[in-house]
Amino acid sequence: MVLPSGILGNEQQEYIRQYLLDKGDLFAIVELPFETFSPNVTINTSVLFIQKGISKSKNIFVSINEYCGHDKKGRPIKKDDIPGVFSFYSGKNKPNANNIFIKHSFLESNFIAKRYLKKYIDNLSLIEKSKHPVENFGNIITSVHNGANIEDFSIYVEKKDGIPYILVKSITKEGINFENLKYIKKSLENDRDVIKNKVDEKTIVMTRAGNVGIAANIPPDLVGGVASGFLINIKIRKDINPYYIVSFLNSEYGQMQLERISSGSILKSIRSSDLKKVRIVLPSKEIQDSIGAKLKESVYSAALARAKLQEANDDTSSLIL
């Protein structure tokens, strides 16, 4: 059956995908080029190959195709991936980055073919082979929600008069960039959304749009600040080191997973429901603390440096004022 990508990946249509898995044997997902039905229709679509019955194929064939023999205006072009799909499925051609077989155990209730690219599956396979326990992030999280949406620019004030408001562009793998902070009126302190999204040193913030999937810990000089709407505000179990979790999420193993779950044809974003499925290598508390201590030292050193710079600036200003 041919289905648009919306049905293949949207949360609202998950019951449809679950029904297909419960009632049939999905053995292939073939993503068609965007121009396939052009010039009449331009839509991302895939073909699902399903057999009747509940017996499950050991492996599922996934094919991602870029060219279909014509462009978006219907004009013929030389490149056409579609005729070669069966050769990959039958084994005549060896698997490549865009045509692979995956274990049925890797299939989620999301049929977007790009989630099953070889690089993503290889990454998951390596994680599962870890000598340490591996957990879904959702088993570690105690609360997760999007930040505060404050779109009225009139609420922005000078630093000395406001509450720090953490933006997406403030979040980097090196920590939170204070140069990109905004400050909102202190009169908003009692706003429900602001209260809900005040951060402390146990909070993890993550970009959910733009440069998605970058995580950061909260430094001591930003406690009481507010996470903005394009951030995900995360709290985890008390027995888990938040600095270790940020280290893992920003590692190549974490970033590959976060890249995998980011969705959207124009603006990439991450949903909390997908974030909970990210696989976290969870070593002993001793190892977590050892790794986390290195990042914590970096976070605190940056805070100390900011304090010293502010002291120097104040001392310099006192020479004139």
Count of DSSP-assigned helices: 9
What is the general shape?
elongated
CATH topology of the largest domain: Adenine-n6-DNA-methyltransferase TaqI, Chain A, domain 2
State the end-to-end distance: 75 Å
Fourth-tier CATH superfamily name of the largest domain = DNA methylase specificity domains
Q: Report the average pLDDT across residues.
A: 91
CATH architectural grouping of the largest domain: Alpha-Beta Complex
Largest sheet: 5 strands, mixed
Oligomer: single chain
* Total number of distinct structural domains: 2
> Can you give the helix content as a percent range?
25-40%
Question: Strand-residue fraction?
Answer: 15-25%
Strand order of the largest sheet: 1-3-2-4-7
Instruction: State the secondary-structure class.
Output: alpha+beta
**Helix/strand order, N-terminal first:** EHHEEEEEHEHEEEEEEHEEEEHHHEH
Supply database-style keywords.
Rossmann fold; 18 strands; four-stranded antiparallel beta sheet; 321 residues; elongated; alpha+beta; 9 helices; 24% strand; Adenine-n6-DNA-methyltransferase TaqI, Chain A, domain 2
